[in-house]
Every structure is written in structure tokens, then in C-alpha cells.
Specification:
mainly alpha
Length: about 120
């Protein structure tokens, strides 16, 4: 088993979890109706908890993904083409909002559109 697949062997595994890990755990826990305090975990434990939660059935499909960790305007890849997941999310919400679905967007533009549509659609 490689070290990447075994978080307990990570050199930094005992460090505090990253902001991204904590945010992801909070989002997953909300969607699974699980009570988890990510501040009580280290990086290794956070990684294991993420895998555990990902494999549980979703209990609360209405759980919010929360706010982005970084400001999309500061992304070094913000001008790159939006990811498939971003475009899919924009498409679903745009249709719900009665808007036309854009053909192409950059990552930053898509992130901002998602936030705008979340507010308008309640999604």
C-alpha cells in the first residue's frame, strides 16, 4: 500500500487538518446527519473521516456546500475553462432560475455564477 493511501504514515499526518479538509468534513457531515468536530482531528484522522463519510448514504440532500474557502478572484487558474462539475451545477440552477445555460465559462466566472444562482434559487 502506498503512503498516499495510508494517511497514518503521512509525515504531516499528526498536524492539524487543512481548512479544505475541515470544510469538506463539515459539508459531508451535514449531508449525512453526522456530528463531527473537524477541529478535534489531525490530518490523518480527517482523511479517514472523509473516506468514512463519503461511503455513508446521504441523509440530508438539502445540506449546503457552504462558502468557498478562497476568493475565486485570487485563483491562479481562475481564467481556465470551468470544470464539468461547475458547468453542471450552473446548468441545473440556471434552468431552475429560468435562465439560459451558458456554453462556456471560466472557473472564476462559474464560481461567481453559482453563488449568484444559489441566492436566487435557494439551492
Amino acid at each position: 500500500m502506498s503512503q498516499l493511501n495510508n494517511p497514518s504514515q503521512w509525515t504531516t499526518g499528526g498536524d492539524a487538518p487543512t481548512d479544505k479538509q475541515k470544510s469538506f468534513i463539515s459539508t459531508l457531515a451535514a449531508s449525512k446527519n453526522a456530528s463531527v468536530d473537524p477541529d478535534q482531528l489531525n490530518k490523518s484522522e480527517a482523511s479517514a473521516k472523509i473516506n468514512e463519510l463519503k461511503n455513508q448514504p446521504t441523509q440530508n440532500a438539502d445540506a449546503s456546500a457552504g462558502q468557498p474557502i478562497q476568493d475565486p478572484n485570487t485563483w491562479s487558474t481562475g481564467d481556465d475553462k470551468a470544470t464539468g462539475k461547475q458547468m453542471g451545477y450552473v446548468a441545473v440552477m440556471a434552468k431552475k432560475a429560468g435562465e439560459s445555460v451558458p456554453n462556456e465559462m471560466g472557473k472564476t466566472e462559474a464560481s461567481q455564477k453559482i453563488e449568484e444562482l444559489k441566492g436566487r434559487t435557494g439551492m
